[in-house]
Amino acid sequence: MVAAKVGWMSETPFLAPDGQTRCAWAGGAPEFLDYHDTEWGFPTGGDVRLFEKICLEGFQSGLSWRTILNKRPAFREDFAGFDFHQVAEFDESDVERLLRDARIIRHRGKIEAAINNARRAVELVEERGSLAAYVWDFEPEPLKIPEVVATSPASVSLSKDLKKRGWKFVGPTTMYAFMQSMGIINDHSLDCVIRDRVEAERKAFVRP
């Protein structure tokens, strides 16, 4: 999810039940608050988590993040926990199996893209050692004040390079949302109580 899409900097901050403010989008649905407070923006170095997020951001294209978040348990079940080594072995029978499962997004192009991207992830790990080492190379210099944007020069660069490597559904907006959520940038609003916690973890995080 791209926070800029919901205009968190132009809206009144969300006052959570604990009496502290969060990014405005965190109040958009009941399930958003926990996701916002425990996942979104915290630095991530695990290859499976990174691959999962790229896939889910691709599935979100044209849809709401709430839809994807609610379907995430089923996605994890159907896609072998997003272990890309296993997903890379999926074949046409798996595509048909996934298309029959109403619990996920039954979009052939997106399903086939996830399988393709798993194969590309295996190749990338063989080249770079880990998916994390690759994506964190695109970390930009931090901004003092977050910008309300849907893309950035870093997300454009990441998108272009992934596309050259044969990845699908990895446009600049999708990659910007990925970078936000995985903590490669800290896009929590300045008045969000979670921002400083995320920044502290980013400072302590050992880049792969």
Automatic annotation (TrEMBL):
This is DNA-3-methyladenine glycosylase I. InterPro entries: Adenine_glyco (IPR005019), DNA-3mA_glycosylase (IPR052891), DNA_glycosylase (IPR011257). It holds the Pfam family Adenine_glyco. Gene3D superfamilies: Hypothetical protein, domain 2. It comes from the Bacteria. The lineage of its organism: Bacteria, Bacillati, Actinomycetota, Actinomycetes, Propionibacteriales.
